């Protein structure tokens, strides 16, 4: 019996490892749905809170809450759309606007803000007139990542909905769509949930909404149809060889010998037309718009020091509020980051620690574009305490397992190209711990042995 259980466990483990491997090569195996183990609860929640009934409809507050730890809504901001179940119109709106008024020709005395059956709503700019604002609005559609600033992780607006029968129960909008920005998000149906409660009079009384509808939207980079946007290169103080980004990490095009800039076609086809503009990136062997470089700089008695550099190869694109996520077992010890802001993220079911880095305001929160002379770049040194039990120079331990830029996974070099220790100190070839093939063979072998 024990033998059988052991066997089943090993097979389950093999399948798990295979799945994990497939997920990490999600660029190849696109049809496999891979949820992000580093942010398992990540989602954007859209909530319709009915605050008040009117003679022909209701007043609702719509909240877009970003629960993603390290994924934010970047320029040019979110676009929320839905389809009305009945003949609703939006009489007025505060904190956002519908992009089209639609056909309001059947209204005479009062003209609605929009009569479209499928309104598309966008945020206002911070300079909007005060009478058109509502609290928590008007950031030009930008929403921060939850782990970086929970106070900037949401956006809300108010709508006055009408043209329904009197004493209407209200009808849930259908087919919610969220562009944040561009495609990638899929929203579920709006469902009735417990009413939202908030406290008034200094917390001595609670008030609640009449009805609350919620929908959860999740991101899939497969749906966003992105080629990778970044790649990782590595170097060490003990080996002069630099492990560069894997060739064509972000897709290659045959370039003219004498051109200095390449035009990387973004495969995103959007209705808004914004992202269909080609990104012009500096020509490199990896063709990535962004590169993250991890340099193992010093090895002290109790500490080790890493230099982390993020380079922008885009000629026409700045990244404000960028963030970089690094998965590495060394972060279990105390970590000092000199020129970036950082935090550790909670992880469930992952043995390595995960650290999130972002820029410091007025210093390097903006990753500027490249020009003819230099790349845009931000850099920091990180001092990590040594854990004598785990710290090692061999087997690629000192290199990150995974790196994300703005929530998009970066292409890692293959483990057998990692910088090697000099021949004197170790005669073992560098083997990444995720180099699963030998492990699989070992497991299969072990399983067979146990079986026999
Ligand atoms: C969405 O995120 C919130 C906050 O992390 C979490 O409580 C909730 O369960 C998530 N919803 C789904 C459907 O994953
Ligand atoms: C606008 O709506 C009215 C009535 O709902 C309809 O008669 C008219 O044809 C519509 N106009 C257009 C341009 O669709
Ligand atoms: C405020 O909103 C009203 C109605 O939607 C609109 O007519 C007006 O132009 C807006 N004001 C500004 C400054 O945008
Ligand atoms: C909602 O979307 C589905 C699938 O795209 C479509 O079949 C359906 O007609 C839509 N419903 C409305 C009310 O537009
Ligand atoms: C590359 O150089 C050749 C000769 O120097 C020239 O004829 C050609 O136009 C150049 N191509 C581009 C894209 O500049
Ligand atoms: C990027 O930012 C720099 C500095 O703020 C600015 O000079 C440059 O014009 C910006 N470039 C783009 C493409 O927005
Ligand atoms: C680091 O980020 C936190 C949260 O966004 C912020 O409150 C703090 O001021 C930042 N620190 C620096 C030095 O920018
Ligand atoms: C290490 O040894 C290998 C073969 O054993 C050799 O090809 C390589 O050049 C040596 N590297 C150094 C830095 O001596």
From TrEMBL:
GO terms for cellular component: plasma membrane; side of membrane. Residues 230-419 form the COBRA C-terminal domain. InterPro entries: COB_C, COBRA_pln. The chain crosses the membrane at residues 12-33. It is found in: Cell membrane. Keywords: Glycoprotein, GPI-anchor, Lipoprotein, Membrane, Signal, Transmembrane, Transmembrane helix. Pfam families: COB_C (PF25079), COBRA (PF04833). Its main location: membrane. The keyword Transmembrane applies. It comes from the Eukaryota. GO terms for biological process: cellulose microfibril organization; plant-type cell wall cellulose biosynthetic process. The keyword Signal applies. It is a lipid-anchor; GPI-anchor. Belongs to the COBRA family. This is COBRA-like protein. It comes from Camellia sinensis var. sinensis (China tea). The lineage of its organism: Eukaryota, Viridiplantae, Streptophyta, Embryophyta, Tracheophyta.
């Amino acid at each position: 019996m024990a033998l059988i259980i052991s066997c089943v466990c090993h097979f389950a483990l093999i399948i798990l490892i295979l799945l994990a491997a497939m997920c990490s090569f999600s660029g190849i195996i696109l049809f496999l749905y891979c949820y992000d183990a580093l942010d398992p609860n990540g989602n954007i929640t859209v909530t319709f809170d009915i605050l008040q009934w009117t003679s022909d409809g209701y007043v609702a507050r719509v909240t877009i809450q970003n629960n993603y730890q390290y994924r934010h809504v970047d320029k040019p901001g979110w676009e929320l759309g839905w389809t009305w179940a009945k003949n609703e119109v939006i009489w007025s709106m505060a904190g956002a606007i519908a992009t089209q008024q639609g056909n309001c020709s059947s209204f005479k005395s009062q003209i609605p803000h929009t009569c479209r059956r499928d309104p598309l709503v966008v945020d206002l700019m911070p300079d909007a007139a005060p009478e058109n604002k509502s609290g928590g609005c008007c950031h030009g559609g930008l929403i921060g990542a939850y782990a970086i600033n929970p106070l900037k992780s949401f956006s809300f607006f108010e709508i006055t909905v009408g043209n329904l029968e009197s004493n209407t129960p209200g009808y849930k909008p259908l087919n919610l769509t969220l562009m944040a920005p561009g495609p990638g998000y899929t929203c579920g149906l709006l469902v009735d949930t417990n009413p939202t409660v908030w406290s008034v009079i200094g917390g001595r009384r609670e008030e609640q909404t009449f009805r609350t509808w919620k929908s959860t939207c999740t991101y899939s980079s497969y749906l966003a149809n992105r080629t990778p946007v970044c790649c990782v290169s590595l170097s060490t103080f003990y080996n002069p060889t630099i492990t560069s980004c894997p060739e064509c990490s972000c897709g290659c095009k045959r370039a003219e010998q004498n051109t200095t800039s390449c035009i990387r076609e973004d495969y995103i086809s959007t209705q808004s037309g914004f992202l269909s503009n080609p990104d012009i990136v500096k020509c490199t062997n990896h063709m990535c718009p962004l590169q993250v470089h991890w340099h193992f700089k010093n090895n002290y008695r109790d500490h080790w020091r890493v230099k982390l550099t993020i380079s922008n190869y885009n000629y026409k694109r700045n990244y404000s509020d960028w963030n970089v996520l690094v998965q590495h077992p060394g972060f279990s010890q105390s970590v000092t980051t000199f020129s970036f802001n950082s935090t550790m993220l909670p992880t469930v079911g992952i043995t390595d620690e995960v650290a999130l880095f972002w820029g410091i305001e007025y210093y390097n929160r903006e990753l500027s574009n490249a020009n003819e002379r230099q790349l845009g770049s931000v850099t920091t040194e990180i001092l990590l305490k040594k854990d004598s039990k785990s710290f090692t120079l061999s087997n690629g331990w000192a290199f990150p397992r995974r790196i994300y830029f703005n929530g998009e996974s970066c292409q890692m070099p293959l483990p057998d190209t990692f910088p090697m220790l000099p021949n004197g100190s170790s005669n073992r070839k560098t083997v990444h711990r995720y180099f699963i093939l030998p492990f699989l063979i070992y497991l299969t072998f072990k399983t067979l042995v146990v079986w026999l």
